[in-house]
Specification:
The protein has 326 residues and is an alpha/beta fold. The chain is 28% helix and 30% strand.
């Protein structure tokens, strides 16, 4: 189990990671998400033992993780940390990079292990290619494979898919996290992209300016959230007071309403103004003006700006999501 207790870290007055606590069971995946500069990479470095905390402790199976002030080489042998700048040997082949951490006495076994990881990471056709000839995204995948060659107990990933084409990314994420789960590897991944981690994480830690904003399952964070910062990490959203939807309700909190929770229909008189619309594949994303607010809604077809429209909120779905009695 990974345990973090009241962790604090600062770069003088320039930055602080303030009072972070969490627990992560063996074999689970934790996603750290937040805007650039919120402390994601700093937290990974502290977990790995690359930095000394100003206050607080980090434990792996009840054993305290020590920083560089207490050991010559950062990190532990059973931890692997894949940074945004992959540390690879550019003039050797992909397979030679992957097997480098393994014993030289079992070459055939090492090659077999490398090929297993090449398949997981979609690199089968590049086995004998020199690393220097690979794209940035391909090098990221080689770095992950190298980290997995000697099965780690804890894998730390810092923006691991940032250079990878979307064409490969979706299938790669599914295969990689399935592999980690089957191998029982505990994983902590820092990212700013919800799609990297939302479908795969057991827990999400949301950071803002070095502070823990939330820690919960992705489903609970998305469903019960009233925080605009958290909502912004998941994509476009609307913030509407409860009384604008239910005039007789006893509360007047701002609710996060997602675009799919609003239906747009034809109306005899104009109730909204169409500001803009964007084609996104399955839906058009429409920006409308409604009661002096700009809202995001979805439509399967483009809207005719010459026609009148109205909005219908999916009130039952919103009430159920927020557990409202009204």
């Amino acid at each position: 189990m990974l345990e973090i207790h009241s962790l604090k870290y600062s770069y003088g007055d320039a930055f602080k990671l303030n009072d972070i606590s969490l627990k992560l069971d063996v074999g689970q995946t934790l996603g750290i998400i937040g805007q650039s500069g919120c402390g994601k990479t700093t937290l990974l470095k502290l977990i790995f033992g690359e930095l000394d905390a100003n206050q607080g402790e980090i434990y792996w199976h009840k054993e305290k993780i020590l920083g560089p002030s207490f050991q010559l080489i950062a990190g532990r042998e059973d931890f692997k940390y894949v940074t945004q700048d992959s540390e690879l040997m550019p003039y050797t082949t992909v397979v030679e990079n992957i097997i480098k951490p393994l014993s030289r006495q079992h070459l055939e076994q090492n090659i077999s292990r490398a090929r297993e990881l090449l398949e997981v990471l979609g690199l089968e056709k590049l086995e004998n290619s020199k690393v220097k000839n690979l794209s940035g995204g391909q090098q990221q995948r080689v770095a992950i494979a190298k980290a997995l060659a000697k099965t780690p107990r804890l894998l730390l990933l810092d923006e691991p898919f940032s250079h990878i084409d979307r064409f490969f990314k979706n299938n790669l994420r599914r295969k990689l996290f399935k592999f980690l789960k089957n191998q029982g590897i505990t994983c902590v991944i820092a990212t700013h992209d919800k799609d990297d981690i939302m479908p795969f994480a057991n827990k999400l830690l949301v950071l803002k300016d070095g502070k823990k904003i939330a820690l919960d399952t992705p489903f609970e964070l998305y469903k019960n959230n009233k925080n605009s910062y958290i909502a912004s990490l998941f994509g476009d959203f609307n913030q509407i007071k409860a009384k604008q939807i239910w005039p007789d309700i006893d509360i007047n909190d701002n609710l996060i309403i997602y675009p799919y929770e609003i239906i747009i229909e034809l109306s005899q008189s104009p109730e909204i103004e169409i500001i803009d619309q964007f084609f996104g594949g399955q839906f058009f994303k429409i920006i409308v003006q409604w009661q002096s607010k700009k809202l995001f809604v979805l439509s399967k077809e483009p809207l005719d700006v010459k026609k009148n429209y109205k909005l219908i909120f999916k009130k039952n779905d919103i009430k159920k999501r927020y557990r409202l009695n009204q």
